[in-house]
């Protein structure tokens, strides 16, 4: 899969839970994925932050990868979030994802002992995952959850590893994204914030892994399509429609908000997994109004 470069707009899909049992619901999962790809997305990420990855067990994650692989067209990317608190755990999740058909993995830093993690030990963690991985590795910067921002300088040092091929930046900071682009010119650089998709493309990034694409897939695909076709004005106009969806739903309400938005557009969002709290009725109504607009 390394022959073609990872690029495009991918949805970090939500994990659909059965409202009665709380188990992962494979029928809803496959249906959502098929609909998102049909809307123009280039692929999906299983077990990312929007997929409530921290609340899944390893076997659930492995089975989800297999279920998604079954319905994904050959040219669509399947990336799997395999970062973990121990290097051993991250390696095991990575190998399992590759065995079930992942094209690449997305590894977040281990955040629990964030104050004890040095730049050197963080570099060792990513290299160890990449050494053990049968598929290419993307570095995942999401300081909102890990409390461990990844410096552009570390990316420069990791760029020498042949199996580390890209980065997803969910800092929400365009300056940080630009620094990443400069630090790793040969990598696939993905923005993690829908509000910054157009800016990321202007910076020369390859695309976005966007939670907003879980419920506004066609709009995200159209921004990329217009930009690639050279119609910057149209891409900019479409981007303006994405910003409130990303900021108000994804930014303020997290996975529960994304699931509410999916319910509102006819996909299956369903419940979040405890201890995450369900979106309150007033917010659910606001989400429905935003996606309708």
Question: What does the model show?
Answer:
This protein is α/β, with parallel strands linked by helices and 293 residues long. It has one domain: TIM Barrel (Alpha-Beta Barrel). Helices cover 47% and strands 12% of the residues. The protein has 11 helices and 8 strands. It has an 8-stranded parallel barrel, surrounded by 6 helices. Helix 7 links the parallel strand 6 and strand 7. The longest helix has 33 residues.
Low-pLDDT regions: none
Structural class of the secondary structure composition? alpha/beta
Q: Tell me what the CATH architecture is.
A: Alpha-Beta Barrel
The overall average pLDDT, rounded, is: 97
Strand percent estimate: 5-15%
Mind telling me the C-alpha Rg?
A: 18 Å
CATH class identity? Alpha Beta
Q: In oligomeric terms, what are we looking at?
A: single chain
Gross morphology: globular
Taken together, the total number of domains comes to: 1
Our count of helices gives 11
Any key phrases for this structure?
single chain; about 290 residues; alpha/beta; TIM Barrel; eight-stranded parallel β-barrel; 11 helices
Topology:
Blueprint: E1 8-12, H1 26-38, E2 43-46, H2 58-71, E3 77-81, H3 87-99, E4 104-107, H4 119-132, E5 137-141, H5 143-146, H6 152-158, E6 164-169, H7 174-183, E7 188-191, H8 197-202, E8 207-209, H9 217-228, H10 232-264, H11 281-292
Parallel strand pairs: 1-2, 1-8, 2-3, 3-4, 4-5, 5-6, 6-7, 7-8
């Amino acid at each position: 899969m390394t022959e073609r470069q990872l690029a495009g707009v991918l949805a970090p899909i939500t994990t659909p839970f059965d409202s009665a049992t709380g188990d992962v619901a494979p029928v809803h999962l496959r249906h959502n994925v098929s609909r998102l790809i049909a809307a123009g997305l280039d692929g999906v990420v299983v077990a990312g932050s929007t997929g409530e990855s921290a609340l899944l067990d390893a076997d659930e994650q492995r089975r989800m990868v297999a279920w998604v692989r079954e319905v994904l067209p050959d040219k669509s990317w399947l990336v799997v979030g395999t970062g973990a608190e121990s290097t051993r755990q991250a390696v095991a999740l990575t190998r399992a994802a590759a065995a079930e058909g992942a094209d690449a993995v997305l590894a977040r830093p281990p955040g629990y002992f964030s104050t004890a993690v040095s730049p050197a030990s963080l570099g060792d963690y990513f290299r160890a995952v990449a050494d053990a991985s049968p598929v290419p590795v993307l570095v995942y910067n999401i300081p909102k959850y890990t409390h461990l921002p990844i410096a552009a300088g570390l990316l420069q040092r990791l760029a020498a590893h042949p199996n580390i091929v890209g980065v997803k930046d969910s800092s929400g900071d365009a300056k940080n994204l630009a620094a990443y682009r400069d630090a790793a010119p040969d990598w696939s650089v993905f923005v993690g914030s829908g509000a910054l998709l157009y800016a990321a493309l202007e910076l020369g990034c390859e695309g976005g892994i966007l939670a907003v694409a879980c419920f506004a897939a066609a709009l995200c695909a159209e921004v990329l399509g217009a930009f690639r076709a050279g119609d910057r004005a149209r891409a900019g106009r479409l981007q303006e429609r994405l910003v409130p969806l990303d900021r108000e739903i994804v930014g303020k309400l997290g996975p529960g908000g994304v699931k509410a938005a999916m319910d509102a557009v006819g996909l299956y969002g369903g419940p979040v997994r405890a201890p995450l709290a369900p979106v309150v009725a007033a917010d659910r109504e606001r989400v429905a109004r935003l996606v309708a607009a």
